[in-house]
Amino acid sequence: MTTSSAEPKRVLFLFSDTGGGHRAATEAIIEALDLEFPDQFQTFMVDFFRDYFPIPYRYAPELYPPMTKYGIWRLAYRTSDGRVRTRALTGMQYPYLRRAAHRLLRENPVDLVVSVHPLVNSTLARAMRKEPLPFITVVTDMVSTHAFWYDRHADQIVVPTEIAKERGIHFGIPAEKLEVVGLPVADRFVSLPVDKAAWRAEHGWDLTLPTALLVGGGDGMGPLRRVAKAINEANLKLQLVVICGRNEELKADLAAVEWNIPAHIYGFTKEMPQFMSAADVLITKAGPGTISEGFIKGLPLILYSKVAGQEDGNVRYVLENGAGVWAPRPREVVEALRAWVDNPDQRLAASQVCQALARPNASREIARIIAANCNLGENH
Ligand code: UDP
Questions:
Q1: Which pTM does this prediction carry?
Q2: Residues with CB under 6 A from ligand 1
Q3: How far from each other are the two terminal CA atoms of the chain, in whole angstroms?
Q4: Per residue in 265-278, pLDDT tens?
């Protein structure tokens, strides 16, 4: 930790609420900056789509869930994922987005810009050409990272895995600009002590049954409803905890189910670290944030869906490392659960793999990289 009496450095974080992960990652980095460098940074978060970009971009946070559901996202993702294609697309869009990008920079005068979203990098880099600012990208997809993440004008690109680094090199980024640190995760996942038994007792959960935690990203996405109902009908010796995120309809629907097993249904929670600490298995869509948090908590993973494109690689990564299983049909989720309920040793082995894959220091390492790019911290 370092201290200084100089004016705090101003850092702008560009994110958008397309899914829950970009906001969560941004908040984790800001928290780490405060912890590592108290009073040395003033931070600003801007949802560039919602607050600055024109129609139809402005509605991206609202359009993201239906686009992923009906396959439009997959098509857009695959057809645009290439170095030449992203440059061409940026070139085509830029005349329309230029004013918004300049207004964003004018209204948020800062010492350094951090992008935590793939779809702003090239536009911002162009807008900053005349008056360059230090510019860092924090890649918050894990493995199959889209070409849009990698703009060669970024001063540094921080990535969560070696595979994401290799993709950066493939897209023409010099290796020395790419740093593998992991995915930024809130400090509470690392440092908040949770008494599993006490948490379970306080929340009316069974104290001894294996506990499966079912989540679908920030928006309660994927076939959560069908998965929950299949587990209910399977007569397994476990209890189920479902977090519906911001999906109120799902929460109401599941709250009305007649449960054959102990079940606990929640909406969006800020206590995910506690929920994960009190659980034994994590059933989730293949969101990078949730997977990284599950790794830290040593929770074996059952992945029941993925956003086609950016989450394909996450599934491969989990499977190839032995951290969990891919179960795209509800009955496959049930079978995976049954195997882990019946064979606690297998569950333990997967749990140990998860802990080995965890990168609990990612947020603080990113904070140090930001500080170094502001000429603060031990590197300077
Ligand atoms: N999350 C949360 N509360 C909830 C549901 C989700 O804090 O009720 C957090 C979760 O811990 C993770 C993020 O939302 O940090 C979801 O990110 P992920 O990358 O898994 O999926 P996305 O929502 O971005 O598709």
A1: 0.91
A2: 19-21, 24, 215, 217-219, 243, 245, 268-269, 272, 287-290, 293
A3: 14
A4: 999 999 999 999 99
